[in-house]
# Entry
Amino acid sequence: MLENAKECTICHRLISTKFEGDICPACQEEMLFSKVKEYIRSNRVNEYMVADHFQIPLKKVKNWIKEGRIEYVEKDKQIVGTKCERCGKPVTFGVLCPDCMRLLNYNNKQIHLTAPDLNTEKDKMRFLE
Ligand SMILES: [Zn+2]
Ligand SMILES: [Zn+2]
# Structure
């Protein structure tokens, strides 16, 4: 056995022992992604709620959407006349408009910054400090 490496229990790639857990980042993301998909499928949520629920950066969720990996089931049968619960603006999904979501998100920022995250994001945050 290598001293500084262990095997990912899923794909058996070697990962650094410095890395917490037994699953490599790629497999972690896959697992996370399937959970996210499941969550979206069974809840009426938007990307802000997804990011919040899984404590992942909104950017990541948006990327998945951009890549077409996530689709909102509600999208097509949307839902003329759905309005934001806070300000009454029309919304495409969820119960709050993006502005109000951002506001809530902003208030939760402290939680986001201290939450455990995937490694790459952690690195980025360190640079920002
Ligand atoms: Zn793996
Ligand atoms: Zn609103």
Confidence is low (pLDDT under 50) at residues 75-80, 110-117, 119-125.
